[in-house]
Design a protein that fits this description.
The chain is an alpha+beta fold. The chain is about 50% helix and about 10% strand. The protein has 2 domains: about 90 residues, Roll (Ubiquitin-like (UB roll)), CATH 3.10.20.90; about 110 residues, Methane Monooxygenase Hydroxylase, Chain G, domain 1. The longest helix has about 30 residues. It is flat. Keywords: Chaperone.
């Protein structure tokens, strides 16, 4: 006759092994290895605080696999953005990307849907023309053509959003000098923050997908780098203002 303990023990062991495999970072919460760092990954309105035991040894692929499990997004459609740049090589370690304790990364699903605009009943400004499919990169042997196309791509991302960004900051930043008389509810502002963030991140992904056909096309590379900087600056403004707003209700 089998003992109850003999039946339960293998099940518990199997379960613990499954959890450890599902999330390799979960064990770090218990062991608290020396040299561990904790990073934050933003995914829409979700926030994941993930401890990484050995950032100099842990490859990016391990972090991506964990995020894929936690978000149910396909692994091959995940992209992580850090300081405006897409982390492309999953074989490189976390520390090789300059990621440190307290760093914030942004997770996006490649080709995923962009959040819709908030209800029209709110006073949050909505840009016109956002979400229109961008023009295909031209096939050209002239660098000036590509430089002009990249510049237009950046403008097509920022120009429709700037009015909404200015309005959003005036409604969320307590230090804003142009604060309106009516402030939308917290939930409306939360949706607007998610929408603006996703659209700006989509712009960063579009720039990341730009192909520079010639290695000596430095002007095109610089134009793309400048575009990334411009979009990242607006994303930082939006996130900073929203952070101030959340502290008021924290």
């Amino acid at each position: 006759m089998l003992c109850f303990e003999h039946l339960v023990t293998p099940l518990l062991i199997g379960k613990s092994l499954k959890v450890s495999f599902f999330n390799p970072f979960r064990r770090a919460r218990v062991e608290r290895d020396e040299g561990e760092i904790v990073i934050q990954v933003k995914w829409g309105r979700e926030r994941f605080n993930i401890p990484i035991p050995s950032p100099s040894l842990t490859p990016l692929s391990t972090l991506l696999a964990t995020l894929s499990s936690q978000t149910s997004l396909p692994l091959d459609q995940l992209k992580l953005i850090y300081k405006g740049a897409v982390l492309k090589d999953p074989s490189l370690t976390i520390s090789s990307y300059g990621i440190e304790d307290g760093s914030t990364l942004v997770l996006v699903g490649k080709g995923g849907p962009v959040p819709s605009a908030p209800p029209s009943s709110s006073s949050v400004a909505k840009p016109n023309g956002v979400g229109v499919k961008k023009n295909k990169q031209p096939e050209t042997d002239q660098e000036s053509v590509l430089v002009s196309w990249i510049s237009n791509l950046v403008e097509s991302v920022l120009n429709p959003l700037i009015p909404s960004i200015v309005t959003f900051i005036s409604q969320t930043d307590p230090n804003a000098t142009n604060k309106p008389k009516h402030i939308p509810p917290f939930e409306v502002l939360q949706k607007e923050h998610a929408r603006l963030s996703e659209l700006l991140l989509k712009g960063l992904l579009d720039l990341d997908g730009v192909q520079i056909p010639q290695s000596d096309w430095t002007n095109a590379r610089n134009e793309r780098k400048l575009g990334v900087k411009k979009i990242q600056e607006q994303l930082n403004r939006v996130d900073a203002a929203w952070g101030e707003r959340k502290r008021l209700v924290g």
